[in-house]
Amino acid sequence: MKNKKTEIEKLKAENERLKKELKKKKKYGLVWEEKPEEVVEMCKEKLPVLKEVKNKEIITDKDKPVNLLIEGDNYHALSVLNYTHAKKVDVIYIDPPYNTGNKNFIFNDHYVDKEDAYRHSKWLSFMEKRLKLAKSLLKDDGVIFISIDDNEVAQLKLLCENIFGENNFVNDIVWKKTNSPKAQAIGLGNQHEHILMYAKNITKLAINKKVGSITEKYKKMFSQDDNDGRGLYRTIEIEAHGLQKGENRRKFEFHKRSAPWLYSLETLEKWWKEGRIYVSKTGRFRKKEYLSEMAGRLISDLWVDEEINPLQGGSKEYLGFPTQKPLSLIERILKLHFNKNALIVDFFAGSGTTGEAVLNLNKNDDGKRKFILCTYNEENKNGKIIEEYCYPRLKKIFLQKDWGGNLKYFKTDFVDYHKPTDKNKINLTKQATEMLCVKEGTFEKMIDNERFKIFKNSNHYTGIIWDQTAIPTFKKAIKDIKGKFSVYVFSLGDETFDNEFKDVKQKVKLSSIPEAILRVYRRIFK
After folding, report:
1. In a 10 Å sphere around its CB, with 0-12 CB exposed, 13-18 middle and 19+ buried, how is residue 335 labelled?
2. What is the mean pLDDT of the chain?
3. Do residues 473 and 452 touch, judged by C-beta distance below 8 A?
4. Closest Cα partner for 521 from 446, 424, 385, 383?
5. Which of 52, 72, 374, 471 gives 347 a disulfide partner, CB atoms 3.0 to 4.6 angstroms apart?
6. So what's the pLDDT on residue 262?
7. Is the peptide bond before 514 cis (omega within 30 degrees of 0)?
8. What residue spans of 58-209 are helical by DSSP H?
């Protein structure tokens, strides 16, 4: 009897535990079966780092921005960027696999077939891991744009609401991808795709809601001219419907009108005084809109005009290289951000269209935008994507178009770190040099010896000290150098070294390595 009573108590306790667990579960949202990913699991024993491919460096103008191309799985690249570029990115644009089942999505080195019962779960598992890492890169006023089609748009929106927050949804931009709808067995001919737009923090979002140019097609709408010095205009409705016959239409006395107006009487009186009210031969009132004043009109989230050149057959060539998205589309997206010095990341970079779009915009508006492109050197029917398309395309732009600028090429590499031993910490520190240079944007080597290194850019310096006993020598080396230093000192623990640098504390920002790197990786790979 006692045993039975004990069993009942255990069942009650288990029941209460399960109730508490259920309360923790989300009441609404997207649920899928999590699928382990090999590139993620390997990070439990091997930590990603960056290794420069020096013979692929492109330097055309040291005073121009340095852009980065990273070859490797984007999960590993994003993990590294979470250390080097956390909260530093203005804009992320990605064109991920659409998961159509037509050999466009690889999971664990296998294409996901349309009949795969876990097709959506695999895609969601894949995207969730990368979008969480991407969110950490964005500045508080940053924004992410994600291209997608109808196969996964519903799932992606719910996933983004979970990661970025429902309140941070900005727009679902619909753009016309082709001039002619494809014949389909079921449904209507499809001509559109989506670009989901989310803010890191919508209260701080600062985007350019106005266009900077007027297309030729739009100009054709303005055909009237009164020779009043304001040029061509068109007219728009200002009254909700026509007026009754017999009313005095030649006197613009709004308060006597029986018909409802689309604008306030105060606004209408103002336009009348400015000569912006048009009276037709039939006596109908309309407002004049002048072409000369249209630059800066509000941007729609429906992009069907000729500012974007639709891709026929799903792809097109730019500079002799294939692309899945029009160059004009990516430029239009990037122009939405106010900052002409923006840092832009694309971790599904493909053939490098985003890189070309960044360089085009800089050329046209004297901007100093920089890009970081990440892509795996996978082989498709056209060849290896980085080796034969992305890198040659960027090289051609930098060298042949003579736009100036620089490119650093990196590959993801790995350091064994299955346990936090002193040996593994030393090894990680030795392999972290390029990561630290990427973090600080300092690529020019000044001093290189076995005890410490110094790198610089035009206005900043990075010091890496392997041997703590070399601190006095290092301080002598930087004594007469004007400028700020980021200094990384090797430590098996997490020492601050404040006392050793207290006499130059105004000049130096200190970090101990590898602990600064490990803190980020512990958060990601926990």
Report:
1. buried
2. 86
3. yes
4. 424
5. 374
6. 77
7. yes
8. 74-84, 119-137, 153-164
* Nearest-angstrom CA–CA distance, 94 and 133: 13
pTM value is 0.82
Half-sphere exposure of 218 (CA within 13 A, CB side): 17
121 contacts 35 by C-beta, under 8 angstroms: yes
What is the per-residue pLDDT across 348-391, written as a single tens digit (0 to 9) for each? 999 999 999 999 999 888 899 999 999 987 766 556 888 888 99
Q: Which CATH superfamily is domain 51-211+299-414 in?
A: Vaccinia Virus protein VP39 (3.40.50.150)
Query: pLDDT digit string (tens) for 318-344?
Result: 444 555 788 889 999 999 998 999 999
Q: CA 514, CA 490: separation in Å to the nearest integer?
A: 7
Paired residues of 465 in beta bridges: 452, 489
pLDDT at 182 (0 to 100)? 67
C-alpha torsion sign, points 422, 424, 427, 431 = negative
Question: Which whole number is the average pLDDT over 476-492?
Answer: 93
**b/e for 386-403, b at 16 or more Cβ within 10 A?**
bebbbbbbbbebbeeeee
3-state secondary structure 180-236: CCCCCCCCCCCCEEEEEEEECCCCCCCECCECCCCCHHHHCCCCECCCCCCCCEEEE
Rounded Cα distance between 272 and 268, Å, is: 6
Following CA atoms 296, 208, 338, 329 in sequence, which dihedral angle do they give, to the nearest 10 degrees?
A: -100
Q: Among residues 404, 354, 443, 348, which one has the least CA distance to residue 70?
A: 348
**CA 184/CA 370 separation, integer angstroms:** 41
Angle at 400 between CA 399 and CA 403, to 5 degrees: 70
Q: 88: which 2 tokens?
A: 């530093």
Q: How many CB atoms lie within 10 A of CB 27?
A: 6
pLDDT in the model for residue 249: 45
The class of domain 417-525 in CATH terms is: alpha beta
Domains 51-211+299-414 and 417-525 share a fold: no
Q: Are strands 89-94 and 343-346 parallel, antiparallel or unpaired?
A: parallel
Q: How far is the C-alpha of 217 from the C-alpha of 197, rounded, in Å? A: 27
Domain locations in the chain as residue ranges: 51-211+299-414, 216-293, 417-525
Positions of E strands within 37-135: 46-52, 58-59, 66-71, 89-94, 106-107, 110-111
Q: Is the dihedral of CA 97, 101, 104, 107 positive or negative?
A: positive
